[in-house]
Amino acid sequence: MWPPGLPWALALLVTAASSGPSADAADRASIFADLSPAELRAVRTFLMERPELGLSPSQGGPLAKNTLFLVELLPPKKRQALRFLEHGGARPPREARAVVFFGAQAEPNVTELAVGPLPRPGSYRVLGFKGGRAVPFWARPMTRLEYELLHEALVAALAPLEPLLREATGFGFRNCSERCLTFSDIAPRGLGPGERRTWLVIQRFVEGFFLHPVGLEVLLDHRDPDPRRWAVRRLWYNGRHFGGVRELAESHARGALPLARLPEPPARRLFSSYEPRGRFGTPGEAHGAKVCEPQGRRYRLRGNRLEYGGWSLAFRLRSSAGLQLFDVRFGGERVAYELSVQEAVAFYGGHSPAAMQTKYMDAGWAMGASSYELARGVDCPETAAFLDAHHLLDADGPVRFRNALCVFELPTGVPLRRHFDSDFQGGFHFYAGLEGRALVLRTTSTVYNYDYIWDFLLYPNGVLETKVHATGYIHATFYTPEGRRYGSRVHSHLLGNVHTHLVHYKVDLDVAGSENSFETMDIRFENISNPWSAGERVSGDQGRGGTGTPRLTPPLTCPRYHLAVTRRHENEPTSSSIYTQNNPWDPPVTFENFIRDNETIEDQDLVAWVTVGFLHVPHAEDIPNTATPGNAVGFFLRPFNFFGEDPSVASRAPVIVRPLDPPTCSRLEIRRWTPASAGPCVHPEPFTYNGTYRQV
Hints:
The protein is built from 8 helices and 36 strands. It is mainly β.
């Protein structure tokens, strides 16, 4: 199990002081802002009108066509950005990254383009991957059109199994009204390069259908761009393998097949629903504690620029991979150029084919664009500021995602620091404390069954915390006795499969400039002679410093490393890609190549690649959903001898109490720098929610 905090500290050697800002803060941040709906439409219109590209609308038509799959901001090169941010240089040209599926040609492929300048694009160029790697067409992410065709092919192929499914489950694929079957697909889609064969888990389509597998899994080959050539290759039913649909149907017709008969689902209080059932021993109908801002917001939000206490940063929500921070400063000085989510993976074990094959890599499912509406008072406090997001992903125009991000100040419930100075005579010399607060920037990714809650927390003492909570439905399969080796029986016909969550981050630290070094500190036990008592010995810890890379595990993929530090290169912007999920064997972005060059990392522009994660052994309490307590991981960026003292001494929120008549302590001096009373709290506004995301 990965620890929630990594046992290392980053200490970067300061080599130069950064210069002061040269432009308005909000204007500086805008070079990192996500594309507006108008910019997204302009890029799409420009590319659709280029005759040499031959693009068709994304929706409808055949798979073998040229389509625009994704449009998002292409961040400026770091050197250009710093020249603008620090030295009054020219504003970097604003460009878009466009992903095009070229399916209507002899050698189908996926090509990425840089399109600009925005807001009125007039040209494009091909964006290459390091080493000139190409993206084959079979490695492309799934689209809505392919899912529609997959469903049609599955329904047609399983027609001979309709009697079996009706008898065993009471549900079917044809003429089913409200008693339909559905499926979840798993990945990778094959066992080697060039394959696009997907195991589909058949489920009842009821609320929380992820927890309602019926015991049937189907391997469907859909590599050919022509769906008429798609075919079912294998099936697994109730613990047995079958070579084809006819073999399974005939086994059922002969009465030789043990059916997995499922009970009728209840009309109300289904075990996979959120409907209350049972009762606590104490009344629970009243509202619980709330967050309030009695004197208003203590942070400033201007566009994509966020300021709080000594902190300032720019942020964006990438459609491909999620939250990305830029130009992170404390006290006006940059501490990080970029801090971003790179990848979230989940490796499963199991007895059924789908379970043993599942290795989810969520950038391949565009986890950044899965940023659905946050509920006020549940996902974020009522006091939070909410922001919309706009994505152009597998659509014929930008789609608005309401309230996809939120910002709020959070009482941590524990003091940032405090001390009670006892006089050891029943009184005290003084008490002093500083309330614990942090500013939270939050979004979520609902990647089918799982919900990830992504947080960046800013503390007044110069500490930045990165955290992710895992919740939502577990990825579960049909229970068989053999499956108990790979998980827990969490319901009558349901196996919760054991799996490991790993999340990868990019941390481009710039401490007092871009030229930094990396140092680790180890602690060892030391036994020495006592210098003030002859013949006695004392023991203690001794710190040891060293430069260079830390000990790393065998050279596998990026999530295998707790921490890796590399030189920053413009052609290594991300550690993963949207293509890794469907081509993990030879992906266009291979993190191992980042560290194989064995470059020096002393006094260079460095990037720390951080992996956090945990092992999840599902249990009955994961029904209906995995709860957030105990399922959160992250890491901290902490100053280490960077300041002369704790920078939170600048806060005006401490309380200092001193007795005026020690040791009696009957008269006290209470010093505060904030109003004596916090005032009224939560506004009595009713709960509202929209939940839609529409093309705009």
